[in-house]
# Entry
Amino acid sequence: MAWLHHPGIQNDEALFASAIFHPVWGEYSIRGAPVMLMSYLGALKGWLYFPLFQVWPPSALSIRLPVLLAGALAVWLFYRLLLRIGGSRAALAGAALLATDTSFLLTARCDWGPVALQHVFLIGGMLLLLRFAQTGERRWAAAGSFLFGLACWDKALFLWLLSGLCAAALLVFPRKVLALAGPRVLALALLCFVLGALPLVIYNLDSSGPFLPTLRGNASPDFTALGPKALFVLSTLDGSALFGYLVPFDSDSARRPETPWERACVRLSDLSGHPRRSLLGLAFLASLALWPQVRRKPAGRAALFALVALLAAWLQMAATRNAGGGAHHTVLLWPLPHMVMALVGTELAGRWPRTGRTVLVIALLLVVSGNLLLTNHCYAQWIRHGSTLTWTDAIYPLSDYLKTVRAGNIFVLDWGMLDSLRLLNRGRLNLFVGTEAFAGETMTEQDARLAHAMARPENLFLSHVEGSRFSPEPVQRLEAWAVREGYVKRVERIVQDRNRRPVFEVFRLETQRRSRAPNASPSSRGS
# Structure
């Protein structure tokens, strides 16, 4: 919870608000209620936050504290799962590894995947199905299947994990699976799974296309980057994948820490040598190398189950176009790597009651300490160097400014702000995507009419400043069109981040006769 307002609210982090606040939007709705935001992303998170925002207005605290609690719940569920598989030592070791994993902490805290609910549903479903396997009570199979269904509605990419778990169960425990999976159990599990995933099922069955829209839009194979994506799993484990995207590198605009807590955090980062990776990746590789030593033990078979599930899920992720190359994708595989490390490590330690336990404790302390120092360094980077452009904290002053300015419609010309502003302002701004009229190199008559309607003096335009735009072409085309049509670009506000770097540009278009300085050129007005 330290400095929960760092970094700024990112656009994908705020995407769930499109199911709650104006302008309400979704890929598919039932009786006006959005249930699918995209072909693979459900509106479950928006449904859960809707009653919360009625009593607790959107802010960094109300947005991030619930998913942070979901991450804490995932750690507790993981402890309970390992307790049933490998005993208290494995449970404590696994929980310590997961609870201090920087990638797990920060991706769940900012939840731009989203990933927080995915962890809860994955671990909770595994725990419930394990209870079914150990007790034979069908209610646990029903409950676990329902959680897996909810996970698929929340994010259909969970099918990677689900198919991986099924493959692992059949390959590692075939006799147990065949003994438990009778017709009645399978029918009950399928029914509960469909109930959990019902909005996703309805959306796909209601499609008029030749294929299910979820598969049609997301099943594009690509085998060209398997090697780099495999290395990315390790960089996500050791936390280095976060730098340059979620966590900034060093910059020329560093600010001094202000509060005692900030100074302590920065000082600890300096003393620890500004680490950019932890030992977790090496610990996982060591567990893979040592697994053959415990393969015949129950813990070894459980670790093999986690490895097979991990490999099967990752292969599907890595072989999909535009997937597996970001921390928010790779971390969906969590906590399967931690399960392998905990089970292999504690099983080996048990072979040598004295020295083994000492070595395990020392190794665990080293890895956990490295995780904590890395997380502290991430906070120190936010304190000193602010946020990256994608996660800019300038979104807060921009949101505050738009609450005070008079505007008809507000047209957003670049990615990275619309959903964040919709969420922080509870849908009270008339936000619209402003790139449609300027999407192509040539304008149609319809585009021209739309552009003139947008250029009314009461309307505002939002963009990143020049040199920081994700898609500079629409703004460039708008400015060129404005010159041809006799409009002047008048900048209302340049919004800076906490490190006083210009990030956002707010401007209007005015005709020459309305401009305060008729002789000023559009380029000088926008400078």
Q: What stands out?
A: The chain is about 55% helix and 5% strand. Strands lie at 28-30, 33-36, 410-412, 431-433, 460-464, 487-496, 502-511.
